[in-house]
Amino acid sequence: MTDQAVAEYRIEDLAHHSGATVRTIRAYQDRGLLPKPERRGRSNVYRDTHLARLHQIADLLDRGYTLASIKELLEAWDAGRGLGGVLGLVAEVHGPWTDEEAARISREELNERFGGRPDDDAVDEACDLGVLERIPGRPDQFLVPSPQELAVAAELYAAGVPLPAITGHLRELRGQVEHIASRFLEFTTEHVFARYLGQVPPTDADAAEAATMVRRLRPLAQQTVDAELARAMRLFATRHLQRHLGTAGAPGPTGPSPVALPAGTVRAVQELVGADHVAEFVRAATERELQARTMNDLARRSEA
């Protein structure tokens, strides 16, 4: 290799500096992803432009692009259309979709939070679900992408829910949430992003504007799901309590319900509102308690 200003590489040197293998470099040449090297005698000579191109390809592969789509992007760039806007859009989409920060947890801490006894099967399941991530070279340490999700699992376990039931519920929930995310993307693509993605690859201006729109719309999916989940939980929790706390013979959402309240409580309610209004009183008290808790939760959020 010569001076840095006019760097030249043999294919082996190019592989060393780029991190790609010689075989990969030749495959990229065959696909038209790399410019042809200069032929000098019996050797091929590569330059910094080839090294930069290999770095670009590696970056796009890391972002999830296929080689076919990478070729289209690079051809557009070679034709005079920049990649800056497209890469900015890709970076925006691949960026964090939550303010939550990942944390680390030791195997000892993990055991303490879930019963105090090692459970290799449960750890393997958590890693398979992505709730935990193994750290290479540190078998006693794990990365926790979502500490909130792990905290929820710990609370459910402390409340008496078995670990297999927790992971099974998470798998079911994840499938449903992924369906919601897919529908939200289809909806926004049809009504918002279609105008930016009319040509592939989009122009720098369209890609930059689409990236700005991603930043604006990113929180909307979570806000919508939060609001609808709160509404649904209140609705179904109220029905659930009515079904389990109603008086004998009182019609509930699915028919008569047994008396689940202590007998002394039922007598006190009967003396207060009369025997014919016990179920109605319980329902009203339940709804009032749920409303109070909702208001308290909103007040805590505003103070935070």
TrEMBL record:
Pfam families, alphabetized: MerR_1
PROSITE patterns: HTH_MERR_2 (PS50937)
Domain named HTH merR-type: residues: 8-76
Keyword Membrane: no
Keywords, alphabetical: DNA-binding
InterPro entries associated with the record: DNA-bd_dom_put_sf (IPR009061), MerR-type_HTH_dom (IPR000551), MerR_fam (IPR047057)
SMART domains, A to Z: HTH_MERR (SM00422)
GO molecular function: DNA binding
The name this protein goes by in its record: DNA-binding transcriptional MerR regulator
Organism field: Streptomyces avidinii
